[in-house]
Amino acid sequence: MGNWFTIDTIGEDTFMISEYRHWEETHAYLLNGSERSLLIDTGLGIENIYEEVIRLTDKPVTAVATHIHWDHIGGHRYFPDFYVQEEEVSWLSGGFPLPVEQVRKSVAERCDLPEGFSADAYEIFQGRPARVLKDDEIIDIGGRSVNVLHTPGHSPGHMCFFEKERGWLFAGDLVYKGTLFAYYPSTDPQAYRTSLERVSALPVTRVFPGHHDPDLRPEFLEEVRNAFLTLHAEGKLHHGGGMHQYDGFAVWI
Fold first, then answer.
1. What is the mean pLDDT of the chain?
2. Which residue among 2, 166, 202, 253 is least packed, with the fewest CB closer than 10 Å?
């Protein structure tokens, strides 16, 4: 496996599994409960994330996806017990809105690929979820409960996961340092704004993004929300609105 994955300990029962050798610098998060473990996202699938996960837990593992994009579900094939949001179930059975050729280009772009891996053979994960999630459901893993928040915008079924007792928000692609993408046909800039308004009102103590620098202040949620509110007020929050630069992030709509 080499050094494809980087493991960081968030607490004695929580780990971040990162893929820094790819330009997207994806993060997956393993939450260990007393009865089972919850893996939030599974990365690109370039290397076997399961082999890392079983070193960090001896409990049964359920995988969830913040959304059904290739860089968040690539390792789902190793976890038959996985959950997805109801709006994107069809994407797992041939309905993904981008051609696989375009995805393969993104996988190979600016990436220190491991020896023996060929992006030409890369396939978008397809499968049948064990459970379909809806907004405001709770996932209990034994001594830890995670609230499911439907936060569309980046994708129609995007979810954040909020561990209320700790104030921890696992934000997926809703917020991170870098370029926030809302220009694809499957994105919805106005829904993105509404989701940011919802999440920024929560009592968040830590934010765990899906990409890049993991050190995010809770105030970052408000900064991104305010940017979207300003774009909306200026009549720019729509597809074709262009790229807008801010301190620490950009919005591409």
1. 97
2. 2
